[in-house]
């Protein structure tokens, strides 16, 4: 069993006292009992005693590649269309919070929920740089959100684990969920070079049938939400050798990837697929937009 995380609220340093008081009051009001509020005295990473696999590098510019066809949706536009000035927004699995921070100016409060201490430290610094002081961060994860029932207006989750039942529980009636996950055919042409191990295909999600991630997500949300829009989207991206190496080393694209042990597979991949200095692959994402009635 994974160890539970004591929920702690981390405020963003540098805000006016009245803003800090307001954020603390709003966040505390919707939290479950036992939550500890940390004063905004520094941007150091919070300490806790659980180990998680997420790393700051997941959102590094090297990992993104260069899109050569259009993405199938504008995730920021979708989130903005579901937000309103008085909204309380939870970004579940917020990471460095670079996506949700940009929504802060149009809502009342953004709460980043994140199990990883290093990520929260980065997110705090990002909020300080952006001047987003109506933002705070909470230690916790998607399977046991530390919020009381029906207290949140919008839950977003970008490429992070999600729990549809917990999202439904914390949303107010009329509230929205916007969840984007990696699809089961993401970068399939790259993953195939790394074969299998005793656990199955080493490529992330290749053990699933094509479209299974999208179908499962849609079913999970339709069982709870009355309005559900699910899409399985694809677009093309190119990676340089440097970007591809960073992607494999710093994300779970290939299970147990090792630059040394997988050198032959990496060399075959780049030899076979390299065109004009880049490797082209297909990105696959699943998007669910759901409303609680």
Task: Report on the architecture of this protein.
The protein has helices spanning about 15-30, 75-80, 115-130, 165-170, 190, 210-220, 240-250, 265-275; strands at about 10, 35-40, 65, 90, 110-115, 135-140, 150-160, 170-180, 195, 200, 225-240, 275, 280-290. It has about 290 residues and is α/β, with parallel strands linked by helices. Strands 1, 2, 3, 4, 5, 6, 7, 8, 11, 12 and 13 form an eleven-stranded mixed β-sheet that branches. Strands 9-10 form a two-stranded antiparallel ribbon. Helix 4 links the parallel strand 7 and strand 8.
Keywords summarizing the entry:
27% helix, globular, 13 strands, 293 residues, alpha/beta, two-stranded antiparallel ribbon, 8 helices, eleven-stranded mixed β-sheet
DSSP strand (E) fraction? 25-35%
Oligomer: single chain
Structural class, from helix and strand content?
alpha/beta
Query: Overall pLDDT, averaged?
Result: 89
Helix content: 25-40%
Question: What overall form do the CA principal axes indicate?
Answer: globular
The rounded Rg comes to 20 Å
Distance between the termini: 33 Å
- Residue stretches low in confidence (pLDDT < 50, at least 5 long) are 41-59
At a glance:
The protein is of the alpha/beta class and 293 residues long.
Topology at a glance:
Elements: E1 8-11, H1 17-30, E2 36-38, E3 66-67, H2 75-82, E4 88-92, E5 109-114, H3 117-130, E6 135-139, E7 152-158, H4 164-170, E8 171-182, H5 188-191, E9 196-197, E10 200-201, H6 212-222, E11 227-239, H7 241-250, H8 263-273, E12 274-275, E13 278-291
Parallel strand pairs: 1-2, 4-5, 4-7, 5-6, 7-8
Antiparallel strand pairs: 1-6, 3-11, 8-13, 9-10, 11-13, 12-13
């Amino acid at each position: 069993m994974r160890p539970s995380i004591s929920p702690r609220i981390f405020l963003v340093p540098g805000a006016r006292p009245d803003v800090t008081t307001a954020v603390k009051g709003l966040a505390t009001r919707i939290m479950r009992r036992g939550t500890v509020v940390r004063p905004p005295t520094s941007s150091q990473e919070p300490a806790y005693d659980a180990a998680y696999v997420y790393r700051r590098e997941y959102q590094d510019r090297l990992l993104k590649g260069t899109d050569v066809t259009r993405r199938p949706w504008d995730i920021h536009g979708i989130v903005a269309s579901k937000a309103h000035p008085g909204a309380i927004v939870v970004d579940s699995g917020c990471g460095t919070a670079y996506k949700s921070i940009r929504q802060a100016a149009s809502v009342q409060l953004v709460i980043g929920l994140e199990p990883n201490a290093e990520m929260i430290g980065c997110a705090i610094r990002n909020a300080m740089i952006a001047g987003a002081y109506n933002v705070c961060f909470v230690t916790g994860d998607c399977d046991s959100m530390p919020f009381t029932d029906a207290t949140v207006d919008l839950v977003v989750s970008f490429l992070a684990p999600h729990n549809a039942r917990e999202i439904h529980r914390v949303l107010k009636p009329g509230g929205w969920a916007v969840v984007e996950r990696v699809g089961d055919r993401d970068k399939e042409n790259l993953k195939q070079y790394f074969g299998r191990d005793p656990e199955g295909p080493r490529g992330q999600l290749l053990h699933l049938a094509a479209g299974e991630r999208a179908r499962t997500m849609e079913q999970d949300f339709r069982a709870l939400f009355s309005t559900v829009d699910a899409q399985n989207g694809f677009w093309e991206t190119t990676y340089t050798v440097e970007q591809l190496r960073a992607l494999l080393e710093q994300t779970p694209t290939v299970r147990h990837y090792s630059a040394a042990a997988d050198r032959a597979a990496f060399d075959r991949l780049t030899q076979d697929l390299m065109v004009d200095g880049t490797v082209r692959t297909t990105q696959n994402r699943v998007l669910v937009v759901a409303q609680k009635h």
